[in-house]
Amino acid sequence: MHGLEVEVAGIMLKNPTMLASGIMGLSAASLRRAVRGGAGAVVAKSCSSQPREGNPNPTVIEVPPRGLLNSVGLANPGCRELAEELRKLGGEVPVIASVYGFSPEEYAENAVLMQQAGVDGVELNLSCPNVEGTVFGYREELAQEVVSEVKRRVKLPVFAKLTADAGDVVSVAKACEEAGADGITAINTLRAMSIDLTARQPVLGNRVGGLSGACLKPVALRCVYEIAEEVRIPVIGCGGISTGRDAVEFFLAGARAVQIGTAVLYRGLNVFRKVAQEIAEYLEERGYSSVGDITGMAHR
Ligand code: RRO
Q1: What is the pLDDT at residue 91?
Q2: What is the distance in A from the centroid of ligand 1 to the CA of 293?
Q3: From CA 279, how far away is CA 287, in angstroms rounded?
Q4: Where are the strands (E) in the chain, listed by range?
Q5: Strand-pair partners of 122
Q6: Residue ranges of domains in the chain
Q7: pLDDT of residue 25
Q8: Are 97 and 109 within 8 A, CB to CB?
Q9: Which one of 20, 29, 59, 154 is CB 3.0 to 4.6 Å from 261, fit for a cystine?
């Protein structure tokens, strides 16, 4: 397939599809399955300094059509153990670690551990809907503090993953760029809930969770479009992408690459290869030679 290679903050991707954080967990074996499914890069599940068990069950439920509601609660074995797993992944595609922290210093320490593990980039999860405490991506100055501290400590490309639950996601993106972020990932899941009519209680053990899947696409697309108007660093689209046509909408809105998560459930692990093929077909049918030819076109 021609013209699918993209460069994102110095990282070369053989095609613009990436595995979104959280979907395939954090073992090397499961991330490799996404690589075999054709992903141009993979993002591991977010990790914190200390291991976390996560929230009470149920933590993941289906929200038709083609959506999920999760309240996983950052279940992870801690960054040190994750670092050992990511070390096993060798060079097939770029690997991006997703790091979380309860303070800017913790984010930076975790990012340093990931850098030592040899990853290609770090995504700062500033937008988890399921953890008690500060959501750094809700406010410009908090997001800025985290990005500055991480950039002070690591040399790798740093992406800030943001949420539309923030009052003004565009201002938060601008603040991250000012603090030295190398890219923006937009967006994380949106806070949402489901109520069981028989039990007359919220379905999720944690009551509230994060919504992902098809219904997120228009919101994510709007965020990418508006952020791309205001920042010069690359924007990675995330939210409701399951086909090549979805991906193309994000490129037209200004995204340099796209992340795919929930769609793995509906189109299988080969979703990356399928979406890449569908993007190539779109480009070829219209006489474009690369993804870059159409990036940001909807702004003109
Ligand atoms: O683990 C989770 O509950 C979780 C995280 Br860290 C996140 O960033 N987004 C999400 O929907 N779930």
Answers
A1: 84
A2: 33
A3: 12
A4: 6-8, 11-13, 17-19, 41-43, 60-63, 67-70, 95-99, 121-125, 158-162, 183-186, 190-193, 195-196, 201-202, 208-213, 235-238, 255-260
A5: 97, 158
A6: 6-57+77-192+213-299
A7: 86
A8: no
A9: 20
Please state, as a whole number, how many other Cβ atoms lie within 10 Å of the Cβ of residue 243.
17
Q: What is the pLDDT of residues 144-166, one digit of tens each?
A: 999 999 999 999 999 999 999 99
With a 6 Å cutoff on the Cβ, whether 70 touches ligand 1 is: yes
Q: Is the pLDDT of residue 2 over 80?
A: no
Report the CATH fold assignment for 6-57+77-192+213-299. TIM Barrel (3.20.20)
Q: Whose C-alpha lies nearest to ligand 1, atom 5?
A: 128
Q: What is the pTM of this model?
A: 0.98
- Nearest alpha carbon to residue 89 among 159, 31, 23: 31
- Locate the ligand 1 atom nearest the alpha carbon of residue 74 and give its number: 1
> Alpha-carbon distance 54 to 76, whole Å?
8
Alpha carbon separation from 13 to 84, 179, 271, 296 (Å, rounded): 24, 25, 16, 19
Using only C-alpha atoms, the chain has a radius of gyration, in whole angstroms, of 18
- Please identify every residue annotated as catalytic: 128
